[in-house]
Amino acid sequence: TRTSRPQRILKAVQRKATVGDPQSVITAIDHFCRHREWAMNVGDEKGSILDSVVSEVSPVTVLELGTYCGYSTVRIARLLPPGACVITLEFNPDYAAIARQVIKWSGLEDKVQLVEGASGDWIPWMKEHFGVQAFDLVFLDHWKERYLPDTKLLEECGLIQKGTVLLADNVICPGTPDYLEYVRNSPRYNSHYYRSHLEYTKAEDGLEKSVFLGY
Ligand SMILES: O=C(NCCCCCn1ccc2cnccc21)c1cc(-c2ccc(F)cc2)cc(O)c1O
Ligand SMILES: [Mg+2]
To answer: Which residue's CA lies nearest to atom 30 of ligand 1?
Structure first.
């Protein structure tokens, strides 16, 4: 049977990128998705905003919800100092299998822990399983209707503390209206919208950065 789109993305990385060179992996995926087949990576334009937020926060522990092929995982991990790591959660086992290989090709596997499963099931176990106290940065890029319930769950589990930064992809397209309303109206968050475009297109999309102010 035909290969999957993630398999074709991995092939493009293996053909065009240099092992151990994260930037070449990012460039290879962006080139493939811009000139061959669109795919739902955060992309180069929003990816630059992601880079600036990661650099500004310089997080020790990052949670990424939604790995897909590992494109944003590589973008984040390449900017982390020694000892810092990103825990990335992927629901789809086929996507996870591809992402592991993309992350390995980039040479960043020591900074990444990829887990498979649903956010609602995993979040209550994160403290116990990973020995994490609280996340410095959370990148939301999974099912759009899970952004709000999972943010509330992260709060309830004490995984969000004063200063934790939430960065949400796709707040315009496909859109996360209930999440936006919550973080923009809650007295416990300071929110900012970074206007951009849906990856590899001219359609509007953007990232919402929300800093938790504490209880
Ligand atoms: O749907 C998107 N992403 C989510 C994919 C599924 C995540 C599943 N998943 C992963 C971890 C996890 C944990 N728990 C539960 C579920 C979990 C997405 C879509 C578009 C898009 C598509 C078509 C279009 F016309 C315009 C835009 C663009 C994006 O950038 C996106 O990110
Ligand atoms: Mg996205």
So the answer is: 40
